[in-house]
Amino acid sequence: MSARVDHDLVIVGSGFSGIGMAIAAKNRGRDFVILEKGDEVGGTWRDNRYPGCECDVPSHLYSFSFELNPYWSKAYATADEIQDYLLYCVEKYGLREHVRLGSTVARMTYDEGLAAWHLTVTDRGGDSRQLVAGAVALGVGTLHEPKIPEIPGIEQFRGELMHTAAWDEGATMVGKRVGIVGTGCSAVQAIPHLAEDARHLTVFQRTPAWVLPKVDPAYPDWLIDQYEKRPWMMKAHRTKLRAAGDLRVGGFTRAPAALKAASKAALANMHSAVKDPELRRKLTPDYTMGCKRATLSNSYYPALARDDVTVETSLIERAWPGGVTTADGTDHDLDALVFATGFDVTGSYRHLHVTGLDGRTLDDDWATDIETYFGVTAPGYPNLFFLLGPNTVLGHTSVILMIEAQIGLVTRLLDERDTRGATAVQVRPEIVPAHMQQLDARSARSVWQEGGCSSWYLDEQGRNRILWPGSVGDYERKLAKPELIDYEFTGSAS
Hints:
The chain is α/β, with parallel strands linked by helices and about 500 residues long. It has two domains: about 10-145 and about 345-490, FAD/NAD(P)-binding domain (3-Layer(bba) Sandwich), CATH 3.50.50; about 160-210 and about 260-340, 3-Layer(bba) Sandwich (FAD/NAD(P)-binding domain), CATH 3.50.50.60. It is about 30% helix and about 20% strand. The protein has 16 helices and 21 strands. It has helices at about 15-25, 45, 80-90, 185-195, 220-230, 230-245, 250-255, 260-275, 275-285, 300-305, 345-350, 360-365, 400-420, 430-445, 445-450, 470-480; strands at about 10, 30-35, 100, 105-110, 115-120, 130-135, 135-140, 160-165, 175-180, 200-205, 210, 295, 310, 315-320, 325, 330-335, 335-340, 355, 385, 425, 485-490. Strand 9, helix 4 (about 185-195) and strand 10 (about 200-205) form a beta-alpha-beta unit. The protein is globular and about 75 Å long. This is Cation diffusion facilitator CzcD-associated flavoprotein CzcO. Belongs to the FAD-binding monooxygenase family. InterPro entries: FAD-bind_Monooxygenase_sf, FAD/NAD-bd_sf, Flavin_mOase-like.
């Protein structure tokens, strides 16, 4: 490696993807650094601090396979517990010395002559520095850049404005007139807590959610002790959870009718808490379960049935200093407005300003369609890897499984590059279109495209560019033994 290269590998982001990649790099003896724009590691679980924030994947499946945690307090972990787990991993595996906090990647440009990436990195004060990396792994994820709806006049609103992904931990909603926009996963978790605190809560709903009952028992001390003393029991439990999760994928990709039983359970969950026929009508989805991500809650419907909560289905038309006005002409007086409106799924990459071979940019290449190979590599961008990239998010089980498979592939490709004495590796451009066509064909039969809804899973052309349309096992098999002929290894380290 040239002396002009600062690090063999630069990892951008310090969530599960970045931490997992760093552990693998350290195990392989690579020189690496983690660039994190925040004040602490953790990614999604550092940023999302809204009331009620927790994971909707079982705790014992939401961890690294090589670092199981016997101490989860309940079936579905809170954001605090998951953040503590990530901090523990950073300390146990000695990653702290490799982390550069307050470091935002503003630009990345590939140097073909050097076979390396030039990164412009800004600090908290706005000063910039240059780094040169032999390879870059982007662990920035898709649930990162908050999406803020465009509401005319919102700049005039004098109350509190916040997104669930940028929650002010010092904020209180006690005694206030609060509005929340959205009914997705974050909203379903936050609404019961906001309803408890607010003088009045108005839920601005565009599309009703499918909400299943949540089986979330606390783990008794005796069971935690058993998992600590007998790790095989914990592994067996994880294996069972994984098998159950992957069984559900058929209902999403091939046979949406298989979701009918779950739909009945969700409707029963609503009917048991909501007695008002008009409110039931508002809350009953008209699309197939799974078209949008189904949520889990035992307190969401009871919260909406409260006398001091209003579900508003007329869209917000404009804002004014003291509240908002909906399309039906109703003025809603508000002291605070919360956006639970999801994320800009390509924004995480767009803000990096990535320029690859021949001056091509990721912004331009992905403007009309996103093309990658298994969500990890993209043609024209050597020595660049995406972790939890396009078409690798899951709607049925833990994404940590996907992340580990991707880290394994990145490790294999970098090792192969070095073994061959090459300086660069990238996917062969000619094989990517056929791969994307195959993904499109598999997605075309899925509930995401045939379920009768619009969601963040689909791009403007209605193509699935977020989810993996298959099982985790299928994805793992393809990445565990990659066809190396699908990749170009170029340059000479000598």
